[in-house]
Please model this.
Amino acid sequence: MLNVRALYKEYPNDQGESVKAAQDITFEIPEGKLFTLLGPSGCGKTTTLRSIAGLERPSGGEITVDGKVMYSSEQKVFVQPNRRDIGMVFQSYAICLI
Ligand SMILES: Nc1ncnc2c1ncn2[C@@H]1O[C@H](COP(=O)(O)OP(=O)(O)OP(=O)(O)O)[C@@H](O)[C@H]1O
Ligand SMILES: [Mg+2]
Model:
């Protein structure tokens, strides 16, 4: 079971202002279920996935996998991506052939 609760992430933009990339995202996915994030460009799908994989450190909220806390702003927990046992296929990739 993947549990995402009140996930919040903001990035600084070039002007130093904060961009709210994911706001109050909450969902749970039972084991074995296929789940889709659907929404317009820029709504925060990739930010959410990168946060689950541990490639981004969220600004707030909680992410648990099978009850194990991967990220929690309240508990100040951030499990490194290589310790989460989560795979991710990147939206954009680059292969450099020389
Ligand atoms: N590294 C970053 N630095 C600053 N802003 C970012 C960064 N990554 C994403 N954003 C901003 O956060 C918001 C959400 O971006 P995100 O890539 O999560 O959207 P998305 O739903 O995956 O969009 P798409 O459907 O185009 O892939 C956008 O406004 C984007 O410009
Ligand atoms: Mg995306």
